[in-house]
Amino acid sequence: MKVTVKYFASIREALGPGEVVELPAGSTIGALRDRLIAASSPHAEALARGRAVRAALDQALCDENAVVPENAEVAFFPPVTGG
């Protein structure tokens, strides 16, 4: 199944605006992140497990256990603080 992945803030600076990824049905956000980490060195650095990275599934914040449906939009971004 195809999933649109979008990147924001520092992750976007490292990886560009996004990409389309093929995933097996039933994949989770965590599995998608692992697949992206394995894709290249820039992906591994930007999405590393030691880094704080938030995810949104179809524009709703989610955790890494969320199952990704076909044709979903997944966004990855660093935590944001404001004042």
UniProtKB/TrEMBL annotation:
Signal sequence segment: none
Protein name: MoaD/ThiS family protein
Coiled coil, from the record: none
SUPFAM superfamilies in the record: MoaD/ThiS
Pfam families from the UniProt entry: ThiS
Xref: InterPro entries: Beta-grasp_dom_sf, Mopterin_synth/thiamin_S_b, ThiS/MoaD-like
Organism in which the protein naturally occurs: Caldimonas mangrovi
